[in-house]
Amino acid sequence: MSIEEKYSGQKVLITGGLGFIGSNLARKLIEVGALVTIIDNLESDSGANLCNVEDIKNQIEIIQSDIGNENELTSVLKDKKYLFNLAGQNSHIGSMNDPYKDLTVNADSQLKILEVCRLYNPEIKIVFAGTRQVYGRAKYLPVDEKHLITPLDNNGVSKRAGEMYHIVYNRVYDMATCVLRMTNVYGERMRIKDDKLTFVGWWIRQLLEGQTIQIYGDGSQIRDFNYVDDVVYALLLCASNPFAYGKIYNLGGEPITLLELAQLMIQIHGTGNYELITYPASRKRIDIGDYYGNYSFINTELGWQPQISLQDGMKKTIEFYKQHKDNYF
Predict the structure, then answer these.
(1) pLDDT tens digits, residue range 146-170?
(2) I need a surface site. Which of 21, 59, 139, 324 has the fewest CB within 10 A?
(3) What domain range is 174 assigned to?
């Protein structure tokens, strides 16, 4: 059965659906005929942006609420076939500045969601948005799912708790849950007005405004990147494939240094400059060093692999912000 057949006519809930990945997922789900509901609290520090869904707002249901609101969750979750659990506190610096908020959103609220599902809709299919941050500094590359879990910041700790709650509910209650550990996701509709959530988005803004891209350290740090459409496809595969339930999968892409990335972005844009600057102490303490993920597990089991090259994806992304910068700066 195709992805289209699995989701057509099905009721789907996306937590954090006004954000970057959630809004792109909503578009794809509408395209394949799903009935989409979004729940989002539109918090100012998050990636939520009503402009992300402006042109599809009449095709989806939007509920402005916090994922910790159990009464709201109970009402909205009762009849859903799929839950894409993307809501979370994703700022690494933010997790250190306000650790209790980070814990509440990424652990406590995730447990509330799972309890509501267990009590009122135990057949629902759930994918939780995990992060490579749980690994901390890589002991070897590429990093696979067997790597030690040694997070360097509070965000990595709370996200680990969130993902394990999902796995426990699969093991104990036989609920259909799955975790995707994401790496650097980029593309249209991400927050680029500051560097709170993504340095790539911030670099794009600096580039489009004629500022100098600032690279911490010597630029030799290795990272990998996934274009948002590839991540959306991974989410759809995991939620609809019983083989994925109870499992944790890495996503990943081709490794590139930050210096090479900056040079590629400048080349695509046609103009721009970069400079190497000293790491701020607050960031250096929680920096993970080199990282790129081994995604062979999800490739072998579900057939997923990146389809969009970094060059092609970055071209699409930069062009989008050239056209829509007023909504994102």
Answers:
(1) 999 999 999 999 999 999 999 999 9
(2) 139
(3) 3-191+225-254+292-308
